[in-house]
Specification:
By secondary structure, the chain is α+β, with helices and mostly antiparallel strands. The chain is built from 10 helices and 4 strands, in the order ββαααβαβαααααα. The radius of gyration is 21 Å and the shape is globular.
């Protein structure tokens, strides 16, 4: 999925960023799965109201893409039960408040090799980066793991789950990530789900969502025209002396 531009973290969340305890370093990060809906909803079980709203969203999305309703319900129920199992082996928000407990440095070679995991973590990460990065990954590269317990539990879950169920789950996560970018009917399906969960009657107008997507909203993503525009603005209106003063202040604080 990464090779076609979809950063889906359905089983293990993969990141690359600054080391929390040394901002001069860039490190890899492995975290628990990014779920399709709130963990707090999922752990209530399949029959919970909000989980049923989510299931309806899954089924309607599959029907939109050509599946029959009966087939979608059968296949996606298993996928949802798998996601509920993922939620149950994931840490809650309260358990993740202590940053020290989430900071477990190791190297790719020292990462556990439980059943169902890649035989080489270095090769796995290299594959993820090949399409977008020229970084040469080695087994000695540093990685921060939020929970080794999650890794162990995930291995057990993967080995007792049919491959088709896992594939359908990852397929759903891929579809879910693109629902806002499909046609009007897909947008209506998503709006129905959002309304059921949040009470929102309708999403933002198309022009607002487009502006936000390219980076002119309140947040800056990895692809952001807002950052590029800010750079042009800074080059025109900020004097070199101001940059030097800012760098000096940042160096002093560090």
């Amino acid at each position: 999925m990464n090779t076609i531009g979809l950063g889906i973290n359905g089983l293990i969340s993969f990141t690359m960023g600054s080391d929390d305890k040394n901002s001069s370093w860039r490190v890899l990060g492995f975290d628990q799965a990014s779920l399709g809906t709130s963990r707090e909803y999922l752990i209530e079980g399949f029959d919970a109201q909000n989980v049923q709203h989510y299931f309806k969203y899954m089924v309607n999305s599959a029907i939109l893409l050509g599946a029959s309703e009966n087939s979608a319900r059968i296949e996606l129920k298993d996928s949802l039960l798998f996601e509920i199992a993922l939620a149950n082996i994931s840490k809650s928000k309260s358990e993740r408040r202590n940053a020290d407990l989430l900071y477990n440095p190791t190297t790719l070679d020292e990462l556990p090799h439980y059943d169902g995991f890649p035989p080489s973590w270095a090769s796995f990460v290299q594959t993820l980066l090949n399409e977008t990065d020229e970084t040469n990954v080695t087994g000695s590269d540093r990685v921060i793991v939020t929970s080794f317990e999650y890794f162990e539990d995930l291995s057990e879950l993967l080995n007792k789950t049919k491959p088709r169920i896992i594939a359908n789950y990852l397929g759903w996560q891929t579809v879910r990530s693109g629902m806002s970018s499909l046609n009007l009917e897909a947008l209506r399906i998503k709006e129905t789900y959002d309304k059921a969960i949040t009470g929102l009657e309708k999403t933002s107008p198309m022009w607002k969502r487009c502006v936000s997507t390219v980076g002119f909203g309140n947040t800056a993503g990895s692809f952001s025209l807002g950052i590029l525009a800010s750079s042009m603005y800074a080059k025109k209106f900020f004097k070199p002396e101001a940059k030097e003063a800012t760098l000096e202040m940042a160096s002093y604080l560090r």
